Amino acid sequence: MNHRFHPAALALLAVACAAQAQAPRKFDFSDKPAPGYTAVSPATDYTPARGYGYEVPAAGGKPSYFSVDLPEGNYNVTVTLGGAAEGSTTIKSELRRLMLENVRTAAGATATRTFTVNVRTPKIPAGATLRAGSVALKAPRETVQEAWNWDRRLTLEFNGAAPAVRTLEIAPAEVPTLFLLGDSTVSDQPGEPYASWGQMLPRFFKPGIAIANHAQSGETYRDSLARRRIDKILSAMQPGDTVLMQFGHNDQKQIKDGKGGPFTTYKAEIKAHVDAIRAHSGVPVIISPMERRRFDDQGKAGITLQDYADAARQSARELGVAFIDLHAMSVPLYQTLGPEASKAAFASTGPGHLDNTHHSNYGAYELAQAVAAGMRKAGLPAASYIADGYGAFDPVRPDPFASFAVPASPTHSNERPLGDETNQ
Q: Domain boundaries in the chain?
């Protein structure tokens, strides 16, 4: 059948769809839903027809995942927490991006918190300098294990010692975006015990800025260009948005393959990214790669990525862009922790299986604070959104591991993130 619509009808339909997309979504998880809120019970499973619900059956007092269909964009999420008993709630978005950390509520009391999230799809719309297409996702990693990062819905992880989410309101937000681009030490890792500073960074920012993590395991600046990750960022970027870029670990493979080096192709690919971001009125920021965990016989922290740190610094100076020397902050951090205690900052899948490149939740949490401090030192406008009490991290005075209490997510993986296997 050939369906034809009058242009006026199509216009009205577009207006109606736009209004629906802009309308706040309001959910009530309590026994007595408030007027104007959609009631949610533990039995409300997500279905495409419903457009919201739990990804896995909800169980009282245990971590759960709640999803809501949403168009691509930025959103302010406001939650009311509390219940009859004492509560302690941690909320992560999409793939374990830490938004709220251990918010405590007394018995019978409530607390309201707001945070800003980003939802995206792989689609790249055509623009003045961009051809239409999609990000070349890695299968099955991004299409299965990391699918929540790319679907048309927001997924929230309700976690904590006693999670107590009463109501949830989601509203579109016209706010600046802080884009992240990098390798596995930046990207959203789908399961414990692996984590990245990119996943922890939202915790250290106030609402009013969205953090969109486009980093991916095993990749380089060259991969960002080839897989169109930078194009995806450019397609979503608004004037004044910031892009933090940290590569280096996997770029070393190009030396072994005879396809480049830190002071040649690496710098050229940095420049290609900087030029593209500037052409779209964005703010490029170069971050040097943090070190791997290495100690010599005298207990001195080893250096494996100095050339890439130096090349990143040179590029920033030559191109006149902001620079965050995460390499220079990571070495004293590891040195302060020492050969034994530093193990807690890196992922371990069991006795004898310590990954000396990829971080644990604790290590990622500390490095995220280092990045926030670097943003403030560099004078970036986005640093004005750093949460009160943060932005002055000193790597020789890290948080004690004994007091670290970010709850682990329910998802686990023994699969090491993609990367240079020879440099574990």
A: 22-134+149-174, 175-407+415-424
CATH no. for 22-134+149-174: 2.60.120.430
Distances (CA, A) of 205 to 100, 190, 217, 408: 10, 22, 24, 21
The pTM score is 0.93
The partner residues of 383 in beta bridges, in order of sequence, read none
For the cut 80, the answer to whether the pLDDT of residue 21 exceeds it is no
Q: Which long-range contacts (CB under 8 A, 24 or more apart) does 48-52 make?
A: 51/153, 52/25, 52/27
Angstrom distance (rounded) from CA 226 to CA 323 = 24
**239: cis peptide before it, omega within 30°?**
no
Domain 175-407+415-424: which CATH number of 3.40.50.1110, 3.20.20.300, 3.40.50.2300, 3.40.50.970: 3.40.50.1110
- Residues contacting 120, CB < 8 A, separation 6+: 72, 149, 150, 212, 232, 236
pLDDT digit string, tens, across residues 65-113: 999 999 999 999 999 999 999 999 999 999 999 999 999 999 999 999 9
Specify the long-range contacts of residues 375-378, CB closer than 8 Å, at least 24 apart: 375/244, 375/285, 375/324, 377/324, 378/285, 378/322, 378/323, 378/324
Q: What are the contacts of 298-303 at 24+ separation with CB within 8 A?
A: 299/338, 299/339, 300/335, 301/331, 301/332, 301/334, 301/335, 303/331
Task: Work out the angle between the directed axes of helices 265-279 and 229-236 (0-180°, nearest 10).
Answer: 20
pLDDT one-digit tens code per residue, 164-182: 999 999 999 999 999 999 9
